[in-house]
């Protein structure tokens, strides 16, 4: 894939929760409470070696940096 660089220093992340807009405030409050109790907890961390996107039947490795896109 020959795509332009989107971010110079990407910081991949994973969404752990989702809620409809009318419940978003409650979700933010719950996340804030959990973070206040254990901001450095191992529960909030997981090793990631690569990130891939599946589009149709093709798999594209989009991270780590340095791999040709």
Brief overview:
By secondary structure, the protein is an alpha+beta fold. It is built from one helix and two strands.
- The count of helical stretches stands at 1
Rg over CA atoms, rounded to whole Å, is: 16 Å
Overall mean pLDDT score? 75
Residues in helix, % = 10-25%
If strands are numbered along the chain, what order do they take across the biggest sheet? 1-2
Structural class: alpha+beta
Cα-to-Cα separation, first versus last residue: 5 Å
Shape: extended
What is the quaternary state of this protein?
A: single chain
Per DSSP E runs of 2 or more residues, the count of β-strands stands at: 2
Secondary-structure element order, N to C: HEE
What ranges have pLDDT less than 50 throughout 5 or more consecutive residues?
none
Major sheet size, sense and barrel closure: 2 strands, antiparallel
Strand percentage, roughly?
Answer: 15-25%
Protein name: 2'-5' RNA ligase family protein
Feature tags:
single chain; 2'-5' RNA ligase family protein; two-stranded antiparallel sheet; 16% strand; extended; alpha+beta; 20% helix; 2 strands
Record the SSE blueprint.
Blueprint: H1 24-37, E1 51-55, E2 58-63
Antiparallel strand pairs: 1-2
Question: What can you see in these coordinates?
Answer:
This protein has 69 residues and is an alpha+beta fold. The protein has a domain at 21-63. Helix content is 20%, strand content 16%. It has one helix and two strands; from the N terminus they run αββ. It has one helix at residues 24-37; strands at 51-55, 58-63. The longest helix is centred in the middle third of the chain and has 14 residues, at 24-37.
């Amino acid at each position: 894939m020959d795509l332009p660089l989107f971010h110079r220093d990407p910081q991949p992340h994973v969404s752990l929760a989702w809620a409809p807009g009318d419940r978003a405030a409650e979700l933010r409050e719950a996340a804030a409470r959990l973070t206040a109790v254990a901001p450095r907890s191992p529960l909030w961390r997981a090793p990631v070696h690569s990130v891939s996107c599946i589009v149709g039947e093709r798999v594209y490795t989009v991270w780590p940096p340095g791999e040709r896109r």
